[in-house]
Amino acid sequence: MRVGAHLRQDENPVATAEDLGIDIFQMFVTDPQGWKKPQPHPHAAEIRESAIDVVVHSSYQINVASLNNRLRMPSRKAVEQQAAAAAELGAIGLVVHGGHLKDGEDAAAGFENWRKLFERQADKGGFGVPILVENTAGGDHAMARTLESIERLWDAVGDFPEAGFCLDTCHAWAGGEDLVGLVERIKGITGRIDLIHLNNSRDEFDSGRDRHANLESGQIDPEVLAELMKTAGAPGVLETPADGISADLEYLRSV
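RESULT FIELD:
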């Protein structure tokens, strides 16, 4: 298994990744709660040249599915800018949440907005890195909570070569999806899993709540998480509480 961790605010993530002995790390390229354009990273050359893979997580407020122009348009721009920053770092992809609509809005329009994201960028030469759509934990009008919604989303974007998929285990559990056999069910829809966000959950099954726990201290059997990781055949990134990351890595290396 190729495993790593999300390094939240590390100025020199390669040094931290080397200290942890991980194969991959995830990072932000801008304030995850804001809209600012990413600035050149002071350790960009070191990140590019490192043998440790990097993946970038987009900022949280992005919602390319939205029917609100005042949210959708800056979201598209943010994906374009953060993908360019990810490409500059040699990243394997940019993780983007599936997004959601408001009550009463037409889901088909939201899925079409996802398609338009890729269509518009294709006219500009593409993103430069895969866009890894991540499943989400809650919301009745989420674009990527259930397998049904993921299938509809993949019908819209799956034919674009830069479309990839990130499976978050806590989100799937909170969204009401049984983790046993989930890899096969997801691949039956998307044909691929490019990245695993390997997280336990503080909350019960189908809670709709996105609260991560360390691998051996949550509601999910850690053996199920380890087996899912092995089955997926994709690198895994821990987004678990920072003070338990070392123990999480030790557990994964022992199974």
